[in-house]
UniProtKB/TrEMBL annotation:
InterPro entries: Methyltransf_16, SAM-dependent_MTases_sf. Signal peptide: none annotated. It comes from Rhodotorula diobovata. One of its GO terms (molecular function) is S-adenosylmethionine-dependent methyltransferase activity. PANTHER family: HEPATOCELLULAR CARCINOMA-ASSOCIATED ANTIGEN, S-ADENOSYLMETHIONINE-DEPENDENT METHYLTRANSFERASE OF THE SEVEN BETA-STRAND FAMILY. This is Methyltransferase-domain-containing protein. It comes from the Eukaryota.
Length: 447
């Protein structure tokens, strides 16, 4: 890192230096510790990115980073104490001490982590799949230190293809993150969103296979559940604008705690990226309450003409969702919404309607993850009849289905809490998590 660490440029505080010197040092520390605009490069595989970070900094560097972070925090706390005493004495003719106190307090809040930070605008760079020479791509062999079940979630270039060549083309999306204190979890872009967004951009044919038929056919309908800041839905819209079907409709939805604040930020993010989208790809934001899709006792499917029909009686070809289950019984609501919104199979639909779900594998959420696995079980060669609340009947064909996991992949990637509390080096603040990406679809069950 070219920037000098804080211990080499922060001035001593005994005796107290003039506030003008402190303000200059605070400006330098602000640029180093808490940038308000961040570039997030999701073009290479996150697996390779995390590996390169580990190689670039060993234990000594990690220890140095921890020291520098601690040094900066202690220095800021002392500045607050000095400034408070100066203000109490009335020794602030130029208002410089008041400004120093305010900036030191904001820096300490920024270094405390995302829940205490102010809003941040991030530019996400996503791979341009059309420029990836697929014949020269290969998966790296996981090192012996990683479990055998984990694989990188994106290919890396062989020696014949450099990352600099690949990186010349990219999708760029601008996303504003708020804070956990500003509204709810919907104001943060979580790690699973980065994972699925990378996958969508790096391998679009996996998620948006070519649709046979004339350009006049119905548009591809895509819904992101629990969009939050909208990174995944906007990635889908950008990829479809670049190389998708002639027409597509992408709906970004949310309805959690304080939904109006989340939806307002979501609309702003859509507007900020509208120039990157094709006129044939229509994007809109809607409030969606999953509770509207819970079935009443003895009800197999809500009829579009019934008085208690949910807001979206029309269904979608593709559902996308990330980091959607973090409390007990949220999985039940998620299942109800997915079952009420995913289009039923049909001979005229190709590809089959699909729900892609990405979740972190956190030990603290083992029960929630187990509940997801139970509600979306692996597909069976001879599926038994499911519990009534898990079944849905297509009114058009009278066939009964349940949602099952058709494919499950475990991946390793950044936790999404990178570098907010570090003031030197990146690896010490770059946490890793394991994620699962599940492809969910309908399977017919016995009546």
């Amino acid at each position: 890192m070219n920037e000098a660490p804080p211990s080499t440029f922060l001035p001593g505080l005994a005796p107290a230096p003039p506030p003008s010197l402190l303000l200059a040092s605070l400006s330098r520390l602000d640029l180093l510790a808490a940038p308000k605009s961040t570039l997030v490069d999701l073009r290479p595989s996150v697996y390779a990115y995390a590996t390169s970070l580990a190689q670039e900094s060993g234990g000594a560097t990690n220890a140095a980073d921890a020291f520098e972070t601690s040094f900066a925090r202690v220095w800021l706390e002392k500045v607050l104490a000095l400034g408070s005493r100066a203000l109490a004495r009335g020794a602030d003719d130029t208002d410089e001490w008041e400004e120093a106190v305010d900036r030191a307090a904001r820096l300490l809040a920024d270094m405390a982590g995302p829940s205490a930070q102010g809003s941040m605008v991030k530019t996400y760079l996503l791979p341009h799949a059309a420029h990836w020479p697929t014949s020269a791509l290969a998966y790296p062999t996981p090192p012996t230190t990683r479990p055998g079940s984990t694989v990188p979630f994106a290919p890396r270039a062989s020696p014949a293809v450099s990352w600099s060549d690949v990186a010349e083309q990219a999708l760029a999306l601008t996303i504003r993150d708020g804070t956990l204190l500003e509204a709810s979890t919907g104001h943060r872009t979580w790690g699973s969103a980065s994972i699925l967004s990378h996958l969508l951009a790096a391998n679009p044919s996996r998620f948006f296979p070519p649709r046979p038929g004339s350009p006049s056919r119905d548009p591809l309908r895509v819904l992101e559940l629990g969009s939050g800041t909208g990174l995944v839905g906007l990635t889908a819209a950008a990829v479809l604008s670049r190389e998708g079907p002639a027409r597509a409709e992408v709906v970004l939805s949310d309805g959690g705690d304080e939904p109006e604040a989340v939806l307002s930020n979501l609309r702003d993010n859509v507007a900020a990226n509208s120039a990157r989208l094709s006129p044939d790809v229509h994007v809109r934001v809607e409030r969606l309450d999953w509770r509207d899709y819970l079935l009443s006792a003895g009800e197999s499917v809500a009829s579009p003409t019934s008085s208690n029909a949910p807001p979206h009686a029309e269904r979608f070809d593709l559902l996308l969702g990330t980091d959607l289950v973090y409390e007990r019984d949220q999985a039940v609501l998620l299942h109800a919404a997915a079952a009420g919104l995913l289009r039923f199979p049909s001979a005229s639909l190709n590809p089959a309607p699909t729900f892609w779900l990405a979740l972190p594998i956190r030990p603290t959420h083992a029960q929630e993850n187990a509940q997801v696995a139970a509600l979306f079980p692996p597909a069976a060669s001879a599926p038994p009849a499911a519990a009534p609340e898990l079944q849905r009947t297509d009114p058009a064909t009278r066939r009964t289905y349940r949602l099952v996991a058709l494919e499950r992949e475990e991946l390793v990637g950044p936790s999404g809490f990178a570098a907010t509390g570090a003031v030197r080096g990146r690896a010490s603040a770059m946490g890793e998590l394991r994620y699962c990406v599940v492809r969910i679809g309908w399977q017919e069950v016995a009546a």
